[in-house]
Amino acid sequence: MKVLFLGTAGALPSKERDNTALAFSAGREVFMVDCPGSAVSKLLKAGWDPLDVKALLITHGHVDHIYGLPSFVHALWLLGRREPLRLYVTEPYVEMVYGMMKIFGLPDKRDIFSLEVVPVPLAEFSLSLGEALEVVTFPVDHDQPNVGMAIRDGATGAMAVYSCDTEPCEAVVSHARAADLLIHEGNDCAALGERRRGHSTAEGAARIAEVAGVKKLFLVHLGKGLLTRKSLALEEAERYYSGLVTIPNDLEEIGVKP
């Protein structure tokens, strides 16, 4: 299984980091998580084919996670996509997604591919992606309804868990136990006096990783104070987690092995 970091910043992007979004692949099956801006351009820069995206999950309705969705759908249409796109949407935001599509007239485009919108409940839920990738979502502790997820490579058994936006919570711990990789938001840093409701500090993410016994911890969704001072987050996390801590760059691709 491969993971592509399409973005690693929080709500405020920088020159080097755009809003957090991820793509997972096994074989030619690509599963995207969230859709801020320029997803097609980013996939192409990383050498991934946007037409290989089989499904996309919108975790919640904050603007930095969803605003690029109409443009992504439009670009896939311009690329000649004919295969349906399965769009998983956490339940409270289904009408928002339909509204965004309608505002830009996307359902009326000639020969546009089918969007199969699947509501994701705020309970543990298995996504039907086929055999290559197995995805289970679960609710997390954000300031609006939101889900994290566990992604397993059906062939190798490798597992990654993504917290999405959340305070440290037991749901992430329970799904990440002995995972090969935990991707956890590290929006804030205790050293900077930052502890925002609905988000985690680097310390909080590290404590979750340590309790869950994950092999590696990658911090994403860096808040304003950390965009130019990522070393503070790394130093803070390393005090509370005994494994490898990394802050990936935008468009960085990694492999996940058991």
Structure in words:
This protein is of the alpha/beta class. It has a single domain, classed as Ribonuclease Z/Hydroxyacylglutathione hydrolase-like (Metallo-beta-lactamase, Chain A, 4-Layer Sandwich). The chain has a seven-stranded mixed sheet with strand order 6-5-4-3-2-1-14, covered by helices on one side. Strands 7-8-9-10-11-12-13 form a seven-stranded mixed sheet, with helices on one face. The longest helix is centred in the C-terminal third of the chain and has 11 residues. It is globular and about 55 Å long.
Instruction: Calculate the terminal CA-CA distance, rounded to whole Å.
Output: 10 Å
What proportion strand? 25-35%
By CATH, the topology is Metallo-beta-lactamase, Chain A
In percent, how helical is the residue content? Answer: 10-25%
The gist of it:
The protein is 22% helix and 28% strand. The protein is of the alpha/beta class and 258 residues long.
Write the topology of this structure.
Layout: E1 2-7, E2 21-26, E3 29-33, H1 39-45, E4 53-58, H2 63-66, H3 69-78, E5 85-90, H4 94-103, E6 115-120, E7 125-127, E8 133-139, E9 147-153, E10 159-162, H5 170-176, E11 181-185, H6 202-212, E12 216-220, H7 230-238, E13 244-246, E14 253-255
Parallel strand pairs: 3-4, 4-5, 5-6, 10-11, 11-12, 12-13
Antiparallel strand pairs: 1-2, 1-14, 2-3, 7-8, 8-9, 9-10
Helix pairs in contact: 5-6, 6-7
